[in-house]
Amino acid sequence: MGLSDNFGRPLFNLRISVTQQCNYNCTYCHREGEVKPANSGNTCVEMTSDEIIYLAKLAIDLGVTRIKLTGGEPLMRPDICQIVEGIAGLSGLKDLSLTTNGYLLYNTAQALHDAGLSRVNISLASLNPENYQTITGGGVIDKALAGVKAAVNAGFNPVKLNMVLLKNINVSDVPDMILYAEKMGIVLQLIELDPVNVSRDYYLQHHCNLKEQEEMLQKRAIYTKQRQFMHNRIIYHLSNVNVEVVHPVENTDFCMHCTRLRITSDGKLKPCLMQNNKLTDILTPMRQGAGDEELLQLFKQANQLREPYNKNHNQHKLLL
Ligand code: SAM
Description:
Blueprint: E1 13-17, E2 39-40, E3 43-44, H1 49-61, E4 66-70, H2 80-88, E5 95-100, H3 109-115, E6 119-123, H4 129-136, H5 141-154, E7 159-165, H6 174-184, E8 187-192, H7 200-206, H8 211-220, E9 223-227, E10 233-237, E11 242-246, H9 252-256, E12 260-263, E13 268-270, E14 280-281, H10 283-287, H11 292-304, H12 314-319
Parallel strand pairs: 1-4, 1-12, 4-5, 5-6, 6-7, 7-8, 8-11
Antiparallel strand pairs: 2-3, 9-10, 10-11, 12-13, 13-14
Helix pairs in contact: 1-2, 2-3
The protein binds S-adenosylmethionine (SAM).
S-adenosylmethionine is lined by residues 22, 28-32, 70-71, 73, 99-101, 121, 123, 162, 164, 191, 193-194, 196, 198.
């Protein structure tokens, strides 16, 4: 029997940040809610591959069935295939995915697939080279597109594009992005900008509530589906392509259907992207020799700290 939190929400999902290092500097990046790079002096506090795999195993023992690797840029870790292979080999796991900016994917996609990765999400904010470079702080679109091709050729199913919508920056790129997803046979995910680790001014200038895009998709859709255990997200099935919408801001439904716990790159259990005041350090006890019972107890404690962020909208206002 798996875990549920105090609001009756089951725990199925674990999102593990494997590093804070990144080769991009995206203007919108929430860095998975980590406040600052996990550096103390010159020493980077980062979990080893064995530690990551062990924590994944404990989470699976508690009922987690889906794990996402994120960062920073997960492909910056030279041992990423080892991490994937270790987690993919754990019994009870149904889905192991990874989100990447795609820059290093052109020559790692096949190895990741062979190591047991089920799916890949590639962040692509624009197809326009200049726009892409500006948004990503110097990213090279050709590299990302080569990464998309490599992911498709490696056999990931589905490959998803993650496009965070930014008012006055990339909203007009949506039709091209739908065509591109259709041409590549992949899924497009339109993501609402979260007000995390971006300035108040940036958020106010660039936040787009996705209403127009959802209306357009509703008109074009043959049918829609809701992903119950993934925040009740809607997938719009168009004639030749699927478009999923991730609409978290001030959305009570999104939070009520959240089944996720996070682990930060420096080994803290984090119940919600939006909150940093409820972290449970699990890496330190693990390094000090804590046994399984003690570590499982920390997971259970962190699970009890999960609560739907959007049950109180005022908290959003405080973050801005
Ligand atoms: N470097 C990897 C990448 O680019 O996908 C992984 C890290 S990135 C923080 C993970 C995901 O968060 C990406 O899909 C990205 O689109 C999304 N993301 C980043 N900042 C966001 C924000 N402010 N609001 C919503 N989504 C965001």
